[in-house]
Amino acid sequence: MGAVWSSCPRGGCADGGIPKDLVLKKTEHSVKVDFERVMDHALRSWAAYHKPEEIESGVFKQPVSPFGNNSVSREVLPLGSLGLFLEHQKDGTQWVCVRGTDNLANVKDDIRYNMEHSPDLGIRVHKGFLSLYAKAWDDLHSRLDKTKPIKLTGHSLGGAVAALLSLRLKKAGYRLMETVTFGAPKFTDFAGSVQYIKHQVPLLRITNKGDPVPAGPPWDDYVHAGAEVHLFGDDPITFRWINGSEATVDDSEAAGKFWKHMVAATNHRLVDYLQNIWPKMAKRNQALETALKHYL
């Protein structure tokens, strides 16, 4: 199977920078998403929460997993309360996975609500996310080959950082193929979201019904960049395609729960995302399913 996204293949993109090979079918009333490839991102986002030695065993060792025997090297880098997981594949593909936080106290210490203009990104960004992005960029860009394809993913705060890295990589001329995030919060304003369309950044956000984190930060200035696929539980067909900054909020209390449930929210855990993505995959391998059931 080819890449989840090319930059923007001839014939146009499905939405902003999202190529049509991920959005397999999209009409006014329906959309078909390649959830097998979304699962590749979800498993790598999950792997980013594990130690390198753990990634070499269990579900990650399965040849039918996205890792299989395709990796040449893997590297874990610290990033404040988050972390970076790098994977280089035999075909030259470079994966960057940004780990979300597992420490709510660190989040409260690190995050400041007001936005600040970023000269290198050309947008206003949530200050806390901007500081994490800046450190990630400093540690990351020298490790990436500008001539080879790059894929990014991340969960929670890691998803926001991955989205910011995507814009920087795209503007700097790197071969960014795709970015898929899970449960990521908002990080910029409307003008910032327009830059993602202008630069054809291939950003897709996956959100769960009942996950309060994508509804925050709970201030009117904040909007989402990229398009969204909203999952309504583990039913094979219940999901919704949402354009651009039209973020889904499941209830009026969601924004108020943003920090309280940043880590503990049942529908925000990456495990819940994996469980809801799996039934929507058209091709499910029994060996991988058995391994996932053991670990989830």
Automatic annotation (TrEMBL):
CDD domains: Lipase_3. Residues 96-219 form the Fungal lipase-type domain. InterPro entries: AB_hydrolase_fold (IPR029058), Fungal_lipase-type (IPR002921), Sec_MonoDiacylglyc_Lipase (IPR051218). It comes from the Eukaryota. Signal peptide: none annotated. GO terms for biological process: lipid metabolic process. This is Fungal lipase-type domain-containing protein.
